[in-house]
């Protein structure tokens, strides 16, 4: 973990009922990710929990990073190595990363995937985050080539984007410029691997606090509190059904992390909702995922 000092004494008020709102908050969190990075995917449960418990204090800004050319060379020359890395990450984190994609249906252009994420963000930050989540689901769970344009368009549709606008913008200068800005920011902040999180407050005079790599949840809470120079209590969690209604499609691991349950207990609670026809279990290679039913 690398550190630069930054702190803020300003604090905004939040309520449990407003835990999904995006208001002006004192801390901004830059999350440097690569859509094809299994550790970035494994960060998802912690980001969900942090948003629910302390989201009233921060906003999240995803930044597309990663060594695109290096990944493309690995995809061509070392598919077996990538498969092993993904499978190992799954066993360590509990978030399914089906490494067979590199043998069966490899991602042909990481650059195309990154450009598509920035294209989606042209329709707003929330739209971009929904799209990013969807392409991650497609590659890590469904072994889809998320650089294929038809697959990207399908992801845009399922992410509730304006698909016609997405198609128009996919090869636009605006998308390329947005990606260039992300890569420039990655260089300026000396981010050399993903995932990396940089937190900083409203004061432009201060530097940021940087966390490189994947850590336990309490580390992220500790860093956030150091930024705030306060010890705020976590917000009251929403009931399970409200959580599922908001996120729509979640890993059993994500539920377990958010609600401080074992994965066995999370699955038991979800089975109750299956019986009530509120959710359905989605089979994946490792673990379990759940989809909310309207």
Automatic annotation (TrEMBL):
Keywords of this entry: Cytoplasm
Subunit structure: Interacts with Spx.
Coarse class of the protein's main subcellular location: cytoplasm
Top-level taxon: Bacteria
The keyword Transferase is annotated on this UniProt entry: no
InterPro entries per record: Adapter_SpxH, Thioredoxin-like_sf
Function: Adapter protein required for efficient degradation of Spx by ClpXP under non-stress conditions. Interaction with Spx stabilizes Spx and exposes the C-terminus of Spx for recognition and proteolysis by ClpXP.
Keyword Cytoplasm among UniProt keywords: yes
One GO CC term on file: cytoplasm
Family: Belongs to the SpxH family.
Subcellular location: Cytoplasm
Protein name: ClpXP adapter protein SpxH
Coiled coil feature spans: none
């Amino acid at each position: 973990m690398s550190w630069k000092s930054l702190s803020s004494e300003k604090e905004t008020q939040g309520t449990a009922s407003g835990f999904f709102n995006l208001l002006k908050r004192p801390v901004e969190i830059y999350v440097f990710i690569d859509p094809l990075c299994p550790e970035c995917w494994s960060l998802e449960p912690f980001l969900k929990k942090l948003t629910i418990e302390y989201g009233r204090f921060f906003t999240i800004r995803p930044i597309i990073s990663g060594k695109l050319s290096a990944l493309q060379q690995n995809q061509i020359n070392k598919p077996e190595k990538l498969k092993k890395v993904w499978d190992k990450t799954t066993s360590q984190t509990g978030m399914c990363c089906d490494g067979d994609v590199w043998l069966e249906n490899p991602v042909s252009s990481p650059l195309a995937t990154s450009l598509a994420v920035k294209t989606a963000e042209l329709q707003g930050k929330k739209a971009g985050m929904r799209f990013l989540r969807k392409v991650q689901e497609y590659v890590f769970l469904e072994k889809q080539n998320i650089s294929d344009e038809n697959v990207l368009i399908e992801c845009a549709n399922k992410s509730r984007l304006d698909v016609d606008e997405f198609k128009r913008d996919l090869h636009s200068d605006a998308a390329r410029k947005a990606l260039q800005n992300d890569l420039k920011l990655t260089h300026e902040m000396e981010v050399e691997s993903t995932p990396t999180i940089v937190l900083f407050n409203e004061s432009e005079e201060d530097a940021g606090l940087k966390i490189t790599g994947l850590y336990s949840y309490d580390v992220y809470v500790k860093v956030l509190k150091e930024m705030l120079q306060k010890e705020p209590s976590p917000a009251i969690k929403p009931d399970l059904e409200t959580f599922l209604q908001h996120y729509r499609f979640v890993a059993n691991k994500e539920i377990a992390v958010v609600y401080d349950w074992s994965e066995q207990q999370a699955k038991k609670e979800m089975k109750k909702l299956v019986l009530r026809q509120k959710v359905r279990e989605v089979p994946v290679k490792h673990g379990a995922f759940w989809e909310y039913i309207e």
